[in-house]
Specification:
By secondary structure, this protein is an alpha/beta fold. The protein is 39% helix and 28% strand.
Length: 105
C-alpha cells in the first residue's frame, strides 16, 4: 500500500487509475493500525486496484476534500467517482465485495 502525503497525490492517483482504495488513518489510533493490516492483506487479491493510505495528521485537508470525519475510513473510487465509503467500524467482507464488483465492470 503506497503512502501518500499530499492531497495532490491522492487526486492524481484517483485520476490515473480506474480503481482506487484510499485508506485514511489517524495518528495514535490502535483500531486504524489493526484495520490497516487487514486491508493490506487484501492487496494481493486485487492486482488492478491501486491501494493508497494517508494519515490525516500528514494530509489534514483530506478531511475537507473527502468529508472524512472519523478514522479509520476506506473510500473506493471507480473511474474517478466515489462508489463506496466505510468509516470507524469497517466491514472487510463488504469492501472485498465492492472491489470484486469493480473488477467485473
Amino acid at each position: 500500500m503506497r503512502i501518500v502525503e499530499h492531497l495532490g497525490q491522492i487526486e492524481q492517483t484517483i485520476t490515473e487509475h480506474r480503481i482506487v482504495l484510499l485508506y485514511v488513518q489517524a495518528p495514535n489510533c490502535g483500531v486504524c493500525r489493526v484495520f490497516l493490516e487487514r486491508v493490506q492483506g487484501m492487496e494481493a487479491d486485487f492486482d488492478d486496484v491501486q491501494f493508497i493510505q494517508a494519515n490525516i495528521a500528514d494530509v489534514p485537508n483530506i478531511a475537507g476534500r473527502f468529508h472524512v470525519l472519523t478514522a479509520p475510513a476506506v473510500l473506493v473510487f471507480l473511474s474517478g467517482k466515489e462508489i463506496y465509503r466505510g468509516a470507524r467500524y469497517l466491514k472487510l467482507d463488504e469492501i472485498k465485495e465492492v472491489l470484486q464488483d469493480c473488477q467485473g465492470v
